[in-house]
Amino acid sequence: MLCVFDKVSSTNDLAKRLAGTGAPEGTVVVSRKQSMGKGRFGRRWISPSGGLWASLLLRPKTSQNIALLPILAGIATAKAVEEVALVKVKLKWPNDLLIGNRKLGGVLVESCYSGTQLRGAIVGLGINVRNSSLDLPKRLKTRAVSLRDIGREVAELDLLQHILDHVGSRYELFRTGKIEFLQREWRQLSSEVGKRLLVKTSGNICEGLATGIDSDGALLVKISTGSTVRVLSSDQLAHFQ
Ligand code: BTN
Q1: Banded model confidence at residue 241, pLDDT cuts 50, 70, 90
Q2: Ligand 1 probe mutation, 5, 8, 12, 35, most atoms within 8 A of CB
Q3: What phi and psi values does residue 219 have, to the nearest 5 degrees?
Q4: Does residue 66 sit in the same domain as residue 177?
Q5: What pTM value is reported for the model?
Q6: How many domains does the chain have?
């Protein structure tokens, strides 16, 4: 089911409501604009017309490996953008899509539970397509990029179709527990793997080489003692070039 709107508060919120009323797996909500688009950590996601603002409802049977859903969505989106816009996209852990070092978009996955039972996962995608980064607030202007900014004219719904195709094939692997393929694809697309990082956790600071992600979506960093540190999304990362 594809639900297309002119303006909604947040496609994730609407998809969540539809999930609660029994909408089937594969339901997609897409809107030309969002008035209250949400980013990670409760941040606002500015969503003018021209961007791809969409949410996909999935209903995994269990919450096993659920933390890999944003990874799966990031990979699928990167592959789709590469296909339709012929441009190299990198994934910055955990959920950013980059062209060069500027942010093309991001993924926000929200899970719905009743009690401890997983009812659904909403995969929200925000991609700058035909909007211009020049229209963003000053602090974001130089950090964001759209496909139009780099001279690629792509229709949002065309991109969405390619993304959904790439999600579909990978979701089958995810559901059957074949996550190694996703971990491998992620390593290939990662902007961090092979680079030295400084990791700041609540009680510690360490330096090491990013090597991949585990089944919980944690970033793996090999430190000088030879052991591997798992970085969680609440930890802070700095990059050495
Ligand atoms: C991030 O912080 O990088 C993730 C941003 C995700 C934004 C998308 S836009 C469509 C969907 N609906 C929302 O409210 N947020 C996500």
Answers
A1: very low
A2: 12
A3: -80, 135
A4: yes
A5: 0.95
A6: 2
